[in-house]
Design goal:
globular; 14 helices; Sacchrp_dh_NADP-bd; NAD(P)-bd_dom_sf; binds NADPH dihydro-nicotinamide-adenine-dinucleotide phosphate
């Protein structure tokens, strides 16, 4: 049916590319382009032989001219950005210059400030509208599926949603004292930042890990979870009718938190460059280089993830509660595509979002977050492509 250019070839991209190849009716041709071409070639060698034609290319996605050249040569219907958040704007610029649709999984962050805001990407709205192309922002799990869950709850179960609690639990054990499940630099920037939640039309800021709750997750059991800022709070706060409070919680084990605190205390999580043996280095980038590569955690991770949203609001004048979640098993993911569940739960929705744009089911010129489109075809695709969801009308609540 169509062609996708996939930029980046790390943990998440590997899963999305496996899934595109399983879905060759939609993805007849893909080009994998990344900074390190040997990784693209190795993945192509693993997946070649199916119905999806695969090519590879080298690109530095910090450079718009290199991106434009690749897009002009391959002529994709959609560019799927699975590099790092730092490259979002250069890739969007190249899409504008070539009038090509754009999909990503994480909002733009400037390298020198850990700021999680959509403002830079939302600023492209008018230019994408004028160019007649779609940008779909945040099509991973959180953000991504969490926004689709919210749109689905709103469409089918509520007249108004008043509160949303997004709960992200990872009960996986990789056997290392400290490792991150996706890009270490991006992950540590996120969890060491101040927390915040949205209430009564404004942001309430908290210290990192200041608010802790225990939640008894279906199929996982009780886990400590901590309130974090997360990018979808910003878009859902605007896009969901009647919302009064929205919070995001993620589970962390004691060993992870103790290591993180210690690394913070000695300055290893800082993103301010320092002078080291005559050259500038960023401590967090150095730390990321010595930590285990998340894409190698697959064979050693056991256990499950459970990510979902609890909605409270009103239907026909009555109070209503609804919990939508997905449970994913690390070992089953590894068996299927050679990756652990964090890459899997992000890579599958990245493929689905790209499919939605490619098939025209989600196609509207401009820049949109996932919850602004009809959730039904995405929800059906989650069940079909490996992330079946479950629902409860009587869940435990978070106080
Ligand atoms: P990885 O570090 O495993 O992979 C990143 C890839 O991008 C690597 O192949 C890297 O190349 C490539 N890359 C980095 N910089 C450039 C550049 N300048 N030009 C070209 N390629 C580049 O990261 P993950 O796969 O773990 O994460 C990918 C994205 O997914 C991130 O943006 C992350 O924030 C997002 N994410 C979203 C989630 C969600 O639920 N929404 C959850 C988890 C992740 P090289 O091999 O040379 O290093």
């Amino acid at each position: 049916m169509g062609k996708a250019l996939i930029i980046g070839c790390g943990g998440v991209a590997s899963v999305a590319i496996h899934k595109c190849c399983q879905n060759s009716e939609v993805f007849s041709e893909i080009c994998i382009a990344s900074r390190t071409k040997s990784k693209c070639d190795a993945l192509k060698a693993k997946l070649d032989g199916g119905d999806t034609k695969i090519t590879t290319a080298q690109v530095n996605a910090d450079h718009v001219d290199e991106l434009i050249a690749i897009i002009e040569a391959f002529k994709p219907d959609v560019v799927l950005n699975l590099a790092l958040p730092y490259q979002d704007l250069t890739i969007m610029d190249a899409c504008l210059a070539t009038k090509t649709n754009y999909v990503d999984t994480a909002n733009y962050e400037p390298v020198d400030t850990a700021k999680f805001e959509y403002k830079w990407q939302w600023d492209y709205r008018e230019r994408f509208e004028k160019a007649g192309i779609t940008a779909l922002l945040g099509s991973g799990f959180d953000p991504g599926v969490t926004g689709v869950f919210a749109a689905y709850a709103q469409k089918h179960y509520f007249d108004e949603i008043n509160t949303i609690d997004i709960l992200d639990a990872n009960a996986g054990d990789h056997g290392y004292p400290f490792a991150t499940n996706f890009n270490p630099e991006i992950n540590i920037r996120e969890v060491s930042a101040n927390g915040s939640y949205w209430e009564a039309g404004k942001w309430i800021e908290t210290k990192p890990m200041e608010i802790k709750r225990v939640y008894d997750f279906p199929e996982i059991g009780p886990k400590d979870m901590y309130l974090l800022h997360h990018e979808e709070l910003e878009s859902l706060g605007l896009n969901i009718k009647g919302i009064k409070r929205i919070r995001f919680f993620m589970t962390f084990g004691e060993s992870y938190l103790t290591h993180l605190k210690c690394l913070e205390n000695v300055g290893m999580t800082s993103i301010k460059p320092i002078e080291f043996e005559g050259r500038q280095i960023v401590p967090l980038q150095f730390l990321a280089a010595v930590l285990p590569d998340p894409s190698t955690l697959g064979p050693r991770t056991k256990g499950k993830t459970n990510i979902g949203c609890i909605f409270q609001g009103k239907k026909d004048g009555k109070d209503k509660t609804y919990y939508l979640y997905n449970v994913c098993d690390h070992e089953a993911c590894y068996k299927e595509v050679g990756s652990q569940a964090i890459s899997y739960t992000t890579g599958v929705p990245a493929m689905i979002g790209t499919m939605m744009v490619m098939t025209g089911q989600w196609n509207r010129p401009g820049v949109y977050n996932v919850e602004e489109f009809d959730p039904d075809p995405f929800m059906a695709a989650l069940n079909k492509w490996g992330l079946p969801w479950q629902e409860s009308f009587t869940p435990d609540l978070v106080d």
